Amino acid sequence: MTDEMDQTRSMAVWGHMHEYERTFPVWNNTVTQYPTGKSGDGLPIFFNAPSTIHLTIGTAGAFIHERFQDPPPSWSAFHAQKYGYGHLQIFNSTALSFGFQSEREKSQIDGFWLQKSPL
User: Domain of 18?
Assistant: First the structure.
């Protein structure tokens, strides 16, 4: 382990928990950045995020014992216990967008843009 932030991973996708949750960029349980703006479609933008945004998407299974912490931790940007799926669009080497679609509402209930400076 190192005490330095690993800035090579902008986003990590996890499963198993039967819920959806998105974090702010976080390292060592500490938020390292809040949105730096909003896109034309109203989604938060994270520009040159210094740490990883974590997505837990396990919404195809049964909701059995999962419970969100109340109140949510400071690093939790959004969470929902709904059936749905994620939609990732990679536009180029510096920009992507992600959205979580709720099966019941038939609409996107969360999303964000992740942008980096060109190398």
Answer: 11-60+68-115
